[in-house]
């Protein structure tokens, strides 16, 4: 039986927030949470990763704040211990790699160390949070809070872990626009979110077209942009996310659903084996080196 949790929009906005993970999305989540003048703590085991995340936020924060009504630059605090990162926090967002064992460990630690009324959110794009809360004593405060690629794509999807207190979801839906985010409520648990499931089909078929030699990544992106009028095509978008992350997500879908073709994942594995992870490594489907 779940217990009610006391959470308010003011608590989410005014208390410190913590982001666990400093990858492509972790640092971008920290950027958006830092637009209301409060303290945002960043935790990762790598000192280099923490420093790179702070540099990213500080470089981009002034421009992002100007785009948000009543926005105000917050303060970034780097933490080398999880306990100090979550102490007194109102919202904690996990953004670690898409590995179930890692997420189970992180949420068990968060449940033990975070304040009893803190919201524990996961940015997982392919795992429903119900899959990794075995060690969480109060699952009513756990929620999927999946960000896309802010500040370019300021959308967040909010989904229950199956036991989430409705007040948590309502408060996050109300708080999100203050951070410059457009929230969407995923109304039942799903492997993949609203856009993710549509995007997965586009992404997988785009990879298949290239893996089969039908077209190049540049061809696919160009025709996609011309027909849909988008700024980026599927391969540029995958490069932005990181090909290792894209592969993790595809491997999870393949494990969950029968009949997903191997070709797209084989193509991703080949690029990753060469060290071509996308924009973050300087090369993916495109070359980003000076």
Can you characterise this structure?
The chain has 290 residues and is α/β, with parallel strands linked by helices. It has eleven helices and eight strands. It has helices at 9-14, 24-33, 47-66, 82-86, 100-113, 166-175, 194-211, 217-228, 234-241, 243-256, 263-273; strands at residues 17-20, 39-43, 75-79, 91-94, 119-122, 142-147, 155-160, 182-186. Strands 3-2-1-4-5-6-7-8 form an eight-stranded mixed β-sheet, sandwiched between helices. β2 (39-43), α3 (47-66) and β3 (75-79) form a beta-alpha-beta unit. α2 (24-33) packs across α3 (47-66), α7 (194-211) crosses α11 (263-273) and α10 runs antiparallel to α11. It is globular. The model has no long low-confidence stretch (mean pLDDT 94).
